Automatic annotation (TrEMBL):
Annotated keywords: Cell wall biogenesis/degradation, Hydrolase, Membrane, Transmembrane, Transmembrane helix
Name the UniProt record assigns to this protein: N-acetylmuramoyl-L-alanine amidase
Segments crossing the lipid bilayer: 20-37
Keyword Kinase in annotation: no
PROSITE patterns: SH3B
Record organism: Loigolactobacillus binensis
Gene3D superfamilies: SH3 Domains, Zn-dependent exopeptidases
Top-level taxonomic group: Bacteria
Domain SH3b: start-end pairs: 46-108
GO molecular function: N-acetylmuramoyl-L-alanine amidase activity
Enzyme class, spelled out: hydrolase
Pfam families for this protein: Amidase_3, SH3_3
InterPro entries (UniProt xref): MurNAc-LAA_cat, N-acetylmuramoyl_amidase_3, SH3-like_bac-type
E.C. numbers: 3.5.1.28
Amino acid sequence: MTSLKRAQQRRKKQLMTFRIAQIIVLILVCGAIWLGIKHVTQPNEKATKTITVSAPALIMRQAPNSSKAVATVKSGAKIGYLSKKNGWDKVTYAGKIGWLPSWLINSDYNATTATNRLAEQTIVIDPGHGGVDSGALATNGTYEKKYTLKMGLALQQQLKASHARVIMTRSSDTSVALAARPKLANKQGASLFISFHFDSSPEANTATGFTTYYYHKASKTFAKTLSKSLNTLTLDNRGTAYGNFQVIRDSTMPAVLLEMGYINDYTDYSYISSSAYQQQVARLVYKGLANYTAN
């Protein structure tokens, strides 16, 4: 064999070795990229602890809200806890991953017999004004802030039976900035936001009735549902209306502002200051919430 042929064979072997090395490197690089993508798109879902469900039955949802059902979890079931968001626990159960309302896990709630999803909602109740912000004045000098709080607390009490997660922007006569109210609702991942207020006319005893305000188009159906549920009140229902109020403008969930009567009208004030009226409003708003969440 001539030296030229030997040199050609050596070059062929070197070229083949180089190409094999290139292929190996390419495979390694592609593998690293695939593993990286998998790590980003499919994070490690290893449970950190086990939780035993004591509620009769819960629906595991696709997202941390009242979304598509993934599975039904019965009492005594052991689930793997992964993380928490907006008051919901991300869990593993029966080979599936989903979300459960953490406040229902140890409750007596039975999702299989429920007619609506009110129990799965986080509802923020906002009693308007408070503290240094007195709100409007009644003809006898009483502050609006007193009755918005009474009405908010009445609704909170009504909602206890529903198993819903209820958050108050204030539970006493304290000052809360306007911006802080929707900010709280947004941070807590609230499903619904209700702000209580009372109207006041430029001249006393010249206006009467209650109005349901909304800002975002997405809140219009919610406003109409609540307004309809309040129809049986003695005071005139002035219907729903667009209202550019910060507490509902800055809220990212369906939100309404309820002006439940004119505080400087003698007739309206006699209702506003009545415990019976406050409880009636709370019951009717509760009914509206149940109707809205039924769908």
